[in-house]
Amino acid sequence: FFFVSGNGFHISIFYYIGTLLVVRAWFNMSVGIDTLFGWYIFAVSGHFRILRHKIKETALKIDAYDNHRDFVSDVAAFVSYHNRTLKFTENLNRLYGEILWSEISMSCLQLCFLLYSLTNDENFANIPFHFFASAAITMQLMIYCFGGEKLKNENDMLCHDIYMAMPWEKMYPSEKKLMLLPLLRTQREISLKGLYFVINVNLLVFIFKTAFSFITLLGAMKEI
C-alpha cells in the first residue's frame, strides 16, 4: 500500500526484498536446527566412546593385572553412565521428534516435485534452481538419516566391544553373570524416531525410491 502510484518497478522491488528476507529467515532457522542436531549426535557418540573406553579399562585390570577388587564398582559406574547416555538419547527424541517428522515429511514432498521439475522443466533457466534446491534438501536428509544411523552403529559397537574386550577365561563365574546385565542393556536397539518412522539410512533409501516412483507416475500421467 506504499506504492499508490501504481509503479510496477517499485512493487517488484518490494516483493523481491520481502522474498529475500523470508528466504534468509528460513535459511537461518534451518541451519541452526540442523547444526544443533549434528552437535547432539556427536555428543551422544562421544558418550558411547567413553563407555567403550570404560569397558576396555575394566577388562585390562583383570587381563593384565589380575585385579578383581574393582570389578563390581567399575561395572556399577558403567551401568550408571550408560543410563545417563540412554536418558540423553530419550531427551533428544523428545526434543526432535516433531521437528524430524515435519522436516522429513516436507523434504520428501519437496524432493519429489523438485526432481520431477528437474527432469521435465522445458525452461533451462530453472534447471540450476531445481538442481541446487534438490541438493540442499538431499544434504538435509543425509544429516538426519546418517545421524540416526550413527547412533545405532555406536550402540552396536559398544555391545561388540563388551563381548570381545572382556577376558572371559580369567573372570570368576560371579563376574561373568554380572556382565550379563551390560550385555543385555546394550543389545536394546537405540534409534531416533520422527514420531511415526525411524531415522536411519533405510529411510533415506525409501525417500529416494518414493521420489523416483513419483517421477515415473507423473511421467505416465503426462503421456495420457
Automatic annotation (TrEMBL):
Q: Name one GO molecular function term.
A: olfactory receptor activity
Q: What is its main location?
A: membrane
Gene Ontology biological-process entries: signal transduction
Query: According to the lineage, what is the superkingdom?
Result: Eukaryota
What transmembrane ranges does the database entry give?
A: 1-23, 128-147, 195-221
Naming one, the record's GO cellular component terms include: plasma membrane
Give the membrane topology, semicolon-separated if more than one: Multi-pass membrane protein
Q: Does the keyword Transmembrane apply?
A: yes
Q: Which UniProt keywords apply?
A: Cell membrane, Membrane, Olfaction, Receptor, Sensory transduction, Transducer, Transmembrane, Transmembrane helix
Where's it found, cell-wise?
Cell membrane
* Family as reported in the entry's similarity comment: Belongs to the insect chemoreceptor superfamily. Heteromeric odorant receptor channel (TC 1.A.69) family.
What is the designated name of this protein?
Answer: Odorant receptor
Organism whose genome encodes this protein: Musca domestica
Q: Which gene encodes it?
A: LOC109614374
- Could you say which residues of the full protein are shown? 171 to 394 of 394
